Structures are given as C-alpha cells and as structure tokens.
Amino acid sequence: MQGSSHWVRYTVLALIGLFLALAQVWTRLQVMAVGYTLSNTRQLLYTLRGERQELEAQWSALTTPGRLGEQASQRLGLSAPQPEQVMRMQ
Asked: What integer is the mean pLDDT of 4-27?
C-alpha cells in the first residue's frame, strides 16, 4: 500500500509540473505574439504619420488662395465680381 501511495503522489506532482511547464511555454508564446503585434503596429503608425504629413503638405499647396482663384477661373470660368455684383450686409 505504501508504494502505491508514493506512485500516485509522484504522478500527481509530475502532472502538475508538466502543466506548469506548458503554461510557461504558452505564456512566453503569447508574450512573443503581443511583441510582434506591437512592433507591426508601431511600424504602421510610423508609415501613417508619414503619409499624413505628405497629405497635409499637398492640402496646403492645393488650398492656397492663389491656386483656388486660378482653378476657379480656368476650370469654372469664374472671375472676380464687379462692384455692382457685391452686396454688403449690415
């Protein structure tokens, strides 16, 4: 009976040890996966910030008053209003 009791204890301890080892491996894998995701997210953020700066520069260039006036006259045939076409509100 005594030998059987030791065998059960060792088996339970071995199973607990195996479970803890597997839990540690799983945890490390999760940490690595989160690290890769974080790295990819940082790279995407860097790329998107660069694109945003480019788009802001393009927007600034395209919305200058001179360019808008030029486009209005060339594309739409608009011109500055004549004095009699201007109405002042009080």
From this structure: 94
